[in-house]
Amino acid sequence: MIKDFDTKLGSVKIDKEKIIEFEYGIPGFENLRKFALLQPESSFPIMWLVSLEDKQVAFPVILPQLIRSDYEIILPEDISEYLQLEKPEDAVVISILTIPQNKEDITINLAAPIIISLNNNKGIQLLIENTEYKIRHYLKDEIERNNQLLSVQRNGG
């Protein structure tokens, strides 16, 4: 069943089966539970995680592997069970971007990825502790780091 929703990106039609349920909300937005992941061509590869309950709430997100090809997380077993994940392909992992007016200062949150199950459309934001990942990585620095990493790999390093 398709339903109309007013979001920060305008009015959108969302199939009820595509609604992502955040049972515990997202930190700072615990009262909001229903979201959709939109991918407008105009902002590709940036997607938007939009609230279907508060049209003022939308998070710019991106697949972290596009920025940091060696990005890797290990999900705790209880999270995998909650999301009904049997294999890595059962989930979409996205990271929230902060986009200030000065585009040079865009940051990506690698320490608290959002995990969305393709099996049950549940989502959760996971805080990864004790890693090299931080809440704010400058996008330009990560892209430069990633390019260096890929260059080393291409040259047999």
Looking at this structure, what is the CATH superfamily? BH3618-like
| Topology, number of strands | 11
How would a crystallographer describe the biggest sheet? 9 strands, antiparallel
Rounded to the nearest angstrom, the distance between the terminal CA atoms is 51 Å
* Overall tally of domains: 1
Uncertain residue ranges? none
Overall shape: it is globular
SSE order = EEEEEEHEEEEEH
Strand content: 25-35%
CATH fold node name: BH3618-like
Named at the architecture level, the CATH assignment is Roll
Query: CATH top level?
Result: Mainly Beta
Mean pLDDT across residues: 91
Helix coverage percent: 10-25%
Describe what you observe in this structure.
The protein is an alpha+beta fold. The protein has a single domain (2-154), classed as BH3618-like (Roll), CATH 2.30.290. It has helices at 77-82, 139-154, and strands at residues 2-7, 10-15, 20-21, 34-38, 47-51, 58-62, 91-98, 107-108, 114-117, 123-125, 137-138. Strand 4 (34-38) and strand 5 form a beta hairpin. The longest helix has 16 residues, at 139-154. The model has no long low-confidence stretch (mean pLDDT 91).
